Amino acid sequence: MSKDLSQLLLTPAEMAAVDAAAAASGIGSFGLMEKAGAAVAAAALRRHPDAFRFVVLCGPGNNGGDAYVAARHLQQSGAAVALFHLGDPAKLKGDAARARAGCALKGLELGIYQPETGDVVIDGLFGAGLGREVPVEVRALIGRVTAAGRPVLAIDLPSGLDGRTGKVLGAAFQACSTVTFMTRKPGHLLMPGRELCNELEVFDIGIPARIIRAEAAGLIAENTPDAWKGLLPAEQLETHKYKRGHLVVFSGEADKTGAARMSATAGLKAGAGLVTIAAPRAAISANAAHLTAVMLHAIDDEVDLGGWLTDKRLQTFVLGPGFGIGARARGFVSALADRHLVLDADGISSFKDDPQQLFDLFRGEPRLVLTPHEGEFARLFPDIGSDDALGKVDKAVAAARRANAAIVYKGADTVIAAPDGRALINTNAPVWLATAGSGDVLAGIIGGLLAQGLPTFEAAAAGVWLHGEAGQRAGKGLTAEELAAHVLPL
User: Fold this and answer.
1) Residue 133: is its pLDDT beyond 90?
2) What is the rounded distance in angstroms from the CA atom of residue 244 to the CA atom of residue 227?
3) What is the pLDDT of residue 130?
4) Is residue 285 domain-resident?
5) Which residues are annotated as a binding site?
6) d(CA 196, CA 128)
7) pLDDT value of position 3
8) Which residues are 201's β-sheet partners?
9) What are the binding residues for K(+)?
10) Residue at 490 is within a domain
11) Spatial distance between the Cα atoms of 176 and 152, rounded to a whole number of angstroms
12) Are 463 and 340 in contact (CB under 8 A)?
C-alpha cells in the first residue's frame, strides 16, 4: 500500500467515485479488475499452498468479476478450482461479464455448494458495497461454511459486512484473510468488521494517488501519529514547568481517591509540566499518603474553586474519575466553562438528565473533550446512540457537532471525532486494556496533552494512541496502576 494512502479510509461510495474517475481519466477498468483478480489468486496460493480445492464464490457485480478473474488465474496455475455463482451469470454486465467470459470454468448455482475437507473458499459475492441484508441463500451458505470450519479469503470485504460501518447485515463470513485494493474502508477497522476481516492485505492495482485523494473527503482515517504529530509542542532547551502546562485533576471523596491519582500520574507521564490533584479537605490525607511529584490543593465547593481560578495559569482540567455524580459535578463544570476540560465517567453521567446544559457551556472554540463508553454515550446522546442507521463513526461525528467537543467514543474500535467532521479510528489498543481504571488513565493522558497546548481533537487522538501503546508495553494482566506507569510522552 502506498505510504501516501496508508492512513486514509475511503467509504464504499468514495471508492466507487474513484473507480469512475480512474475510468474517465483513461485508465481501463477491466485492466484494474484483471490486476485485482490476479492479486487475489496470488494471495490464495501464497496463504494456502496445501489447499485441496479453491472454491470461488462469484456475486452479481464487480466483486464477482474479480472472483472470475481469480478463478481463471488459479486454474491456470494448476490448482483445482470449483466455481459457484449467485443469480444468473448471463445477466452480468460490463467488466464482470467480460471476466466471466474469460473464465473457462463452468459455474454451478450457489445453493448447491457443500463444503468439503480441504476446501479454501474465496468469497467474491458482494464486497464493500452491500447496503442491505444478505439474501436467505447466502445466509444459509455462510452458515454451512462456518459450521464446516473452512478457511475463507474475502475479496474486498467479507460478504455480509457493511464497508462503511463495519456492521453485519444479517450474516457475514468470518474470513481468515481479506484482500482489498488501493485503500482500506472504515468497515475494515470498525468492529465487528475488523475481527471478521482478520488479516488484511491492501494491493496497489494502479490507480494514481492523486485520483484517490481528489475523490476522497479525507475526513476518516486511522489514528496514527501522522494524524497529529505536526501539532506536538517543539522541544526547547529554554523551558520550564509552566511552559509544559499545569494540569488539574479533581479527586473524589476520601474513599474514592484512587481514580484521580491514576489520572494525575498519567497526565504527568504524558508530559504535563505540573499536575495538581484538587481534593476535598476530607480527602487530602488519603491522597497525600500516595503522592510525591503530584501536588495537592484543597477544594471543597464552588466558592473555593472560583477563588482558585483567578490564577489564569490554570487552564486544563480533568473531572469525573471517582468524583461522584450530581449537582456538585455540574457546578464545577459550569465554573470551568472557559477552560479546557476532559470530562469523563461521573462527570459525564452528571449531565444525563439535561445534556444540553453541558453543551451550552462550551460554545465557541472547542475546548471540551468527552470520553464516553457505550452506556455513557447513550445517556448523553440518546437519539444518536439508538439510531441503527448510523455507524460508530457517524454517531461520534454527530455527537461532536452537537456538543462542540472532541468525542472519544470508547471501545475496541475507539473513534475520535471533531465538530468539523474529522474522525479517526484507533487500532493499537490490546484487548487486555479493558480493565478497571483504564479509562481514568486515558482521561489523564488526554489532559496532559491538552495542558501542553494541543487542540482538543489532536490531544484526544494522541491520548488514545498513547494509551494503546502503554497497554502494549504493560502486557497481559496489567492493572490500571501499571498502565499509568507505562505511559511515555510523545
Assistant:
1) yes
2) 21
3) 87
4) yes
5) 62-66, 123, 127-133, 156, 159, 259, 322, 373, 410-414, 439-440
6) 13
7) 54
8) 179
9) 63, 123, 159
10) no
11) 6
12) no
* Distance from the Cα of residue 177 to its chain's centroid: 19
**How many residues make up the chain in this entry?**
490
- Whole-structure pTM value: 0.94
Neighbours of 409 (CB within 10 A): 26
Per DSSP, the three-state class of 24 is: helix
Helix (H, G, I), strand (E, B) or coil at 372: coil
Q: Which uninterrupted H or E stretch holds 424?
A: strand 423-425
- Reported confidence tier of residue 439, pLDDT bands at 50, 70, 90: very high
Written in H, E and C, the secondary structure of 202-237 is: EECCCCCHHHHHHHCCCCEEECCHHHCHHHCCCCCC
CATH of the domain at 23: 3.40.50.10260
Q: What distance in Å separates the CA atoms of residue 486 and residue 488, rounded to the nearest whole number?
A: 6
For residue 236 the three cell numbers come to: 526547547
Contact (Cβ atoms closer than 8 angstroms) between residue 276 and residue 294: yes
For residue 89, give the DSSP letter: G
Q: Which residues contact 445 (CB under 8 A, 6 or more apart)?
A: 266, 267, 269, 270, 463, 466, 467, 470, 487
Amino acid at 116: E
Q: How far apart are CA 445 and CA 289, in angstroms?
A: 23
Quick one: which of 353, 333, 335, 334 has its CA closest to 343? 333
DSSP 91-131: G--HHHHHHHHT--PPPEEGGG----TTEEEEEES-GGG--
pLDDT per position as a tens digit, 63-96: 999 999 999 999 999 999 999 999 999 999 999 9
Which of 217, 238, 260 is at the close of a domain? 217
* CB contact at 8 A, 158 and 63: no
Q: Are 281 and 296 in contact (CB under 8 A)?
A: no
Write b or e for each residue in 177-190: b if 16 or more Cβ atoms lie within 10 A of its Cβ, otherwise e: bbbbbbbbbbbbbb
Number of domains observed in the structure of the chain: 2
Pairing of strands 119-124, 152-155: parallel
Whole-angstrom CA distances from 463 to 225, 232, 446, 485 are 11, 12, 5, 15
C-alpha cell at 404: 462542540
Annotated binding site for AMP: 410-414, 439
- Neighbouring C-beta atoms of residue 371, cutoff 10 Å: 29
Least confident of 144-148, 239-243, 432-436, 464-468: 239-243
Compute the average pLDDT of residues 160-173.
97
Residue 432 lies in a domain: yes
Supply the range of the domain harboring residue 31.
3-217
